[in-house]
Specification:
Chain lengths: 1062, 273
């Protein structure tokens, strides 16, 4: 308390107390200044860096210890290294000692050298002597023979010269004998001297080898030591960098830290990416690596490490300099979102992956959800929703399993029927056309189906639109009933088909047992499940509806007509024509009619229409757009039939049934749902624009106002009407999204896909995944392959050739997800890329591609690989019965592999075949086992040529033309004659169908008459030598070079090609 | 000049030495037939760790068949040359072959679990053999060790193809000329089986009725029941084992056997409906 002012003083204040006050406040000011400076200096990220340095130092010390112990071990194991290492003198002595060994060996060699040279000289002299002797002996022999001949002649002529010649002959004989002996002697000598030389030479070789060995062991040891030492130097350097030192401490001091602070913010500057910062657009800067210091380093994976210091979990794919997404080019927040410029746990907008982690963070870091920030980080389970920013051009993102599944689910259930979604505008409606429904099902069935689809078919994709959480009270249920009755009435009244009069005519009588067999074999099971209505098929067999209950739904006439020609009823159906004969179709019809619903569903009826409910419901709808009085008048003016029909039309429009089904009268109606892309895209629109209703449980970290986008999307997918909970809303105004049958995994994936819908960011072209022409072709072709479910019958596998998995490699592969960065050949070499031509050459040399570059092996593929060696992704295995699976490898009746098809068949033949499949394998259709049949898909010309190009690109072939120079007719004629011989010797006609010849095998192979137009000539040689590498399991046998000699291959081919009759 | 000559000679001689070596390799080389064209197999440098012979015992398995064995159906051989080999007595389908006294032949038996992992066995140097004789595989079921050579013989006057539909090992399918024998090794073009796998169906795509079964194991404790329906596994170290007993038609059964030092255990397994 200041004293009262001294009345005698000049001033009205007391200096003493004021001084005190100033003193105290200046102290406070100093303290505050220091505190502020400290606050500014002691930033959170510095603590992270110090922690990291400490841990990194510990790790480096460990590495150093390991390197040292490696050197010690080397010393122990290798005396030579020890010598080199004890000390310099000893090392020198050791080297000298070794050198002495070498010198000694060299000296010995010198000694030998004289002898060796002498021996060589002797050998050479002896040899020349021997050669001379040989020549002499030969010429003596020749003279002798000449003389003998002469003598003979003279004797015959009784010439007097005979005697003199005879006498000289003796001399010649003796001379010849001498010469021969001389030659033999010299020959012996030559052999001796050769032996002597060789002996000495062998010694020389041994000595040279010994020297080489000494030199080599020394070099090897040196190399190993050098390697470890180099490692050690690196580790020491690392340690020096990390070790605390006075200069570092000084440089990090406040006030000095502007010079060269070892603690500094690590930033990735990304000028290519733009971000909005306070109304201006600037280049992106990510500072994440300031704290996440080990993110780009390998091996920081121990669980004990603080999460902040772990390596990126997928460093081969992200962050790493050699990965496709180096951090210097892409940064972090382009995928993760969040505030890249911040260096603080809160302001960077970290987001927990789930509520549990949120609680943990709250406790550990005092985390709370960030407010007023548009792009908090994506929780890691949904991170793949960022892939499509740059990968939008790909139908399926490589490695984006979750986002791909989400897209696949959406394509299956058809969200785009109601919601406008950019990029999905041109997809076909997912449900069948309803403008002929009257001829297909009954009203009873239709009513009960709409009411609860899963009651009839538990695996259906048709969503439930009525009796959901906001429409299940008694009043709403009455209205639901009226609505569905109206829908049924409208659909049946607007159902007219040009090709049907009243009803489809009854089919010929069919045999259900024969139909079952056809159903199992001809191809139906590739897309449909029968026999168990609860059985969910695979990705492939679930392609079409489960048919286990269709006998309680469809009439015989409709089934028969549908089987014969699906496109007649529904012109863009996915169901292809199997070109069934009338009897076949009738048999399958009979079989399908045996597939009855086991429950009470078939007995459920369409309830009688309650006039009052129809009126009330109609009024409810009219009132929302018209004044009540007018609406009432309008309703009153209608007849009951008109009311029902009008209600039906409104109900269809309200629920958006036409989004998935073609319905007459709704051809041009706009989609009913909110757009999920564009300026209000679900993944980026302002979180406050989402209606959370009373779902307070969806707040992040239970913090008021902290709305969670992910939670909203997931809640919506789980119960689309949930946000109406607790509200009073008029029937016609209630939420109307129907409920889809989705698994938790599917919902999660779908949420990831939906979250990928964001306002377009400005990604520079250089950073987008741009497709080359070939990639674009493969991409587009893949879409058709997926939409046609080709993979259910054909192995369109990822693996072009056999993958040899050694027993030793099995466990390793089984646990890891393997990315093959470079093509690995079976001889161990790694190469960048192998073209089809190179592959053919390699194959000839017996080298296979072990793994092609760019292949990702997922766990399930690895399992399939291990179970089905040679590699089969086993798509067919899913599609067929168990008996077929067992015999899969080697089943000559299975649909063929279409791996490498582009290199096998001629493009023009392929095109025609896709448009109009013709029989290549006639044995696929015998009575006991009807075999599978390539359906007629009704591809357009564009689709078919795209597919042909797709397969050509996959096989590394040129498209579409490859010139095949014609052979000279005479040459060809000779080849054909020769080829016929090979053909007969190898008995090709024993299995292959040859016109006019009788088959002697049970498993005939394709007819030769069809080969010439179909098969590419250069494919033939590879196929002949190693068919299993092209089509694992094929019945075609390999013929080796002894059976068909290399120069006979062309002849055999020309003969086979000549069998084609034009 | 002289030294050039000399070293030239040295070189020439050592080159001859090397090629001499190669020549040897070729001469002693692998099969030359359909599956052949390979090099000699690399020497097996496996260091064996074998059970103590002093304490090893034997396990004898008898496979029985409940009730009467189904009659073996005659095979309708559509190939005239094949049929000619069976004019007097038709070839019979061997999917169920009864042994003496209600036993069952062609049952494959092996030690499945319980064998100490420390043991390492080398494949025997003698090859496993399969013969195509009268367009029938003889024997119908064989068991062999991984990396053991497989001798494929064609005793017939017709061409066969031998197609092993292995799913873990590499599949092979090669054409074999009449009256020819090929030995498949780890280095031949068509490789012998290198990893344990059971069963592997072997078939001929030319003659649909031809089928045989092969079991491949990492250890020598396996066998196939013979005419008396029994098989004896010898030299088994003492221990508790799970044995698997397989028949192509009746499937796989498991039996537990505990073998004492120098023990001799007998087990009977019954197949049939």
């Amino acid at each position: 308390m200041p004293k009262p002012a001294d009345p005698l003083s000049d001033t009205l204040y007391d200096m003493v107390s004021l001084n005190r006050l100033f003193f105290v406040s200046s102290i406070l000011l100093i303290a505050a200044t220091v505190w502020a400076a400290w606050q500014d200096y002691d930033r959170n990220w510095k603590h992270y860096q110090r922690d990291y340095n400490r841990i990194a130092l510990e790790r480096a010390e460990k590495e150093r210890a390991a390197a040292n112990s490696a050197i010690n071990r080397l010393k122990k194991e290798n005396a030579q290294v020890a010598e080199l290492y004890t000390n310099l003198e000893a090392a020198k002595a050791a080297v000298a000692g070794r050198q002495a060994d070498i010198d000694k060996l060299n000296a010995e060699r010198e000694d030998h050298r004289g002898a060796l040279e002498k021996a060589l000289q002797k050998f050479q002299f002896d040899k020349s002597e021997a050669d001379t002797a040989k020549q002499r002996a030969e010429s003596a022999g020749a003279h002798l023979a000449e003389a003998k001949e002469k003598l003979e002649k003279l004797r015959k002529a009784n010439s007097s010269d005979a005697a003199s010649v005879e006498s000289s002959l003796k001399g010649l004989e003796a001379h010849a004998a001498d010469a021969l002996q001389n030659y033999q002697e010299w020959s012996g000598k030559v052999n001796e001297s050769k032996l002597a030389f060789e002996e000495l030479n062998a010694k020389e070789v041994v000595a040279l080898e010994a020297i080489e060995k000494i030199v080599k062991t020394r070099e090897d040891a040196q190399k190993e030591v050098d390697r470890v030492e180099a490692e050690l130097i690196l580790v020491n350097r690392k340690i020096a960098k990390l070790e605390p030192s006075l200069s570092k401490t000084l440089l990090a001091m406040p006030g000095l830290d502007f010079i060269a602070n070892p603690e500094h913010i690590e930033q990735d500057i990304l000028p290519h990416f733009q971000e909005d910062l306070n109304f201006s657009t600037v280049g992106k800067i990510d500072r994440c690596r300031t704290c996440h210091m080990a993110i780009d380093k390998r091996g920081w994976t121990e669980k004990e490490l603080p999460a902040v210091f772990r390596s990126h979990p997928n460093i081969d794919l992200y962050v790493g300099d050699n990965s496709p997404h180096p951090v210097s080019k892409f940064g972090c927040t382009i995928c993760h979102e969040g505030s890249g410029r911040s260096v603080d746990f809160y302001t960077t907008a970290h987001m927990p992956k789930d509520a549990k982690q949120g609680e943990e963070w709250k406790e550990k870091y005092g985390w709370s959800p960030i407010h007023h920030f548009d792009k908090p980080m994506l929780p890691t389970p949904y991170i793949e929703s960022s892939c499509t920013k740059c990968h939008a051009s790909q139908v399926r993102v490589t490695m984006g399993e979750k986002v791909n599944l989400g897209r696949q689910v959406m394509e299956k259930v058809g969200c785009f029927g109601c919601h406008p979604i950019a990029g999905m505008e041109n997809l076909r409606k997912v449900g069948p056309a309803l403008n002929g429904i009257r001829h297909k099902v009954t009203r009873d069935w239709a009513y009960n189906w709409i009411r609860k689809p899963t009651d009839f078919r538990p695996t259906t994709h048709m969503p439930q639109a009525f009796d959901l959480s906001n429409t299940s009270d008694a009043e709403a249920q009455k209205k639901n009933t009226a609505m569905i009755q109206g829908i049924v009435e409208y659909l049946f009244e607007n159902s007219e088909l040009a090709h049907v009069k009243d009803a489809y005519p009854a089919p010929p009588a069919g045999d259900a047992a024969a139909g079952k067999k056809l159903f199992d074999f001809v191809g139906c099971v590739a897309c449909h499940v029968a026999g168990d209505m609860n059985k969910a098929g695979t990705q492939y067999t679930d392609f079409g509806p489960n048919l286990s209950t269709v006998g309680s739904k469809l009439n015989a006439g409709w089934i028969f007509a549908w089987l014969k020609n699906p496109a007649q009823y529904f012109h863009y159906t996915s169901m292809p024509s199997l070109r069934l004969a009338d009897q076949e179709a009738a048999d399958i019809t009979a079989f399908l009619l045996t597939q009855k619903h086991p429950g009470d569903f078939p007995n459920r009826k369409l309830p009688p229409v309650v006039e009052a409910d129809v009126e009330a419901t109609l009024l409810a709808f009219l009132q929302s757009s018209t004044p009540t009085k007018l609406a009432q008048e309008k309703v009153r003016a209608m007849s009951p039939e008109e009311r029902l029909l009008d209600l039906g039309k409104r109900a269809i429009g309200h629920q958006g049934c036409f989004g998935c089904h073609d319905i007459k009268g709704f051809e041009k109606t706009k989609k009913i749902g909110a757009e999920l892309t564009g300026s209000n895209a679900t993944g980026s629109k302002d979180i406050t624009k989402f209606d959370f209703g009373f779902r307070h449980d969806l707040l992040m970290g239970h913090t008021a106002g902290a709305y969670d986008r992910v939670a909203w999307v997931k809640a919506k997918l789980e119960n689309p009407r949930t946000f109406d909970g607790g509200r009073f809303v008029e029937y016609a105004e209630r939420l109307r999204m129907p409920k889809f049958r989705l698994t938790e995994e599917e919902r999660d994936a779908l949420a990831t896909w939906v979250l990928s819908f964001r306002t377009r960011e400005n990604i520079p072209v250089s950073h987008m995944r741009n497709l080359s022409h070939e990639e674009a072709v493969v991409n587009a072709g893949k879409t058709i392959v997926m939409q046609s479910n080709c993979a259910s019958c054909h192995k369109v596998g990822l693996f072009p050739t056999r993958i040899a998995v050694s027993e030793e490699a099995l466990p390793e592969i089984a646990t890891a997800r393997v990315y093959v960065a470079r093509t690995i050949l079976s001889d161990g070499r790694q190469v960048e890329r192998v073209s089809a031509d190179e592959l053919a050459i390699l194959r000839k040399k017996g080298v296979d591609i072990l793994l092609p570059a760019g292949t990702w092996l997922f766990p399930q593929q690895i399992t399939a690989l291990l179970e089905n060696q040679p590699p089969v992704t086993s798509v067919l295995v899913y599609a067929w019965g168990e008996a077929q699976i067992k015999e899969q490898v080697g089943d000559t009746k299975a649909p063929p592999f279409i791996v490498g098809e582009g290199a096998k068949v001629n493009p023009d033949w392929f095109f025609r075949f896709l448009k109009n499949p013709t029989e290549i394998r006639p044995w696929l259709a015998d009575k006991a086992d009807p075999g599978a049949r390539m359906p007629t898909f009704g591809f357009t010309d564009d689709e078919a040529s795209l597919l042909v190009e797709h397969f050509a690109v996959l096989a590394g072939e040129k498209f579409p033309f490859q010139y095949d120079p014609p052979l000279d007719e005479k040459v060809r004629g000779e080849l054909v004659v020769r080829g016929k011989g090979v053909f007969e010797r190898m008995e090709c006609g024993k299995c292959h169908v040859v016109e006019g010849a009788k088959l002697t095998t049970d498993t005939p192979a394709p007819a030769f008459a069809l080969v010439a137009p179909r098969i590419q000539k250069d494919w033939f040689a590879v196929w002949l030598r190693d068919p299993q590498s092209i089509a694992p399991g094929t019945g075609m046998t390999a013929f080796n070079e002894e059976q068909v000699k290399p120069d006979e291959v062309d002849a055999l081919r020309e003969f086979i090609w000549s069998l084609h009759k034009k | 000049m002289q030294s050039v000559l000399k070293y030239g000679l040295v070189l020439a001689l050592s080159a001859a030495l090397v090629t001499g070596c190669d020549g040897k390799k070729d001469a002693g080389g692998g099969p030359s037939g359909g599956g052949g064209g390979g090099e000699a197999p690399p020497p097996d440098n496996t260091v064996e760790v074998l059970p103590d012979a002093a304490t090893a015992g034997t396990i004898t398995i008898t496979a029985k068949l409940k009730g009467a064995a189904p009659a073996m159906a005659p095979i309708d051989m559509t190939d005239a040359e094949c049929a000619a080999a069976h004019v007097d007595t038709p070839a019979l389908d061997e999917s169920v072959v009864a042994g003496s006294g209600g036993t069952l032949q062609n049952v494959m038996v092996w030690v499945d679990k319980g064998l100490d992992a420390k043991y390492v066995f080398k494949a025997p140097s003698a090859p496993a053999r399969i013969d195509q004789n009268g367009c029938v595989y003889k024997p119908h079921v064989i068991s062999m060790m991984a990396k053991q050579a497989l001798e494929v013989k064609n005793s017939d006057g017709v061409r066969h193809n031998i197609h092993a539909t292995a799913k873990v090992n590499a599949e092979f399918n090669f054409s074999q000329d009449p009256k020819k024998t090929d030995t498949l090794t780890t280095a031949s073009k068509a490789k012998t089986f290198v990893v344990g796998e059971v069963p592997i169906k072997v078939k001929c795509d030319v003659h649909g009725w031809m089928g045989a079964w092969v079991g491949v194991f990492k250890h020598p404790f396996h066998g196939v029941t013979g005419g008396d329906g029994t098989v004896t596994l010898k030299g088994v170290p003492p221990g508790s084992y799970t044995l698997k007993v397989w028949h192509e038609k009746y499937g796989t059964k498991e039996v537990q056997v505990t073998l004492k030092d120098k023990g001799a255990e007998s087990v009977t397994v019954e197949f049939g409906e």
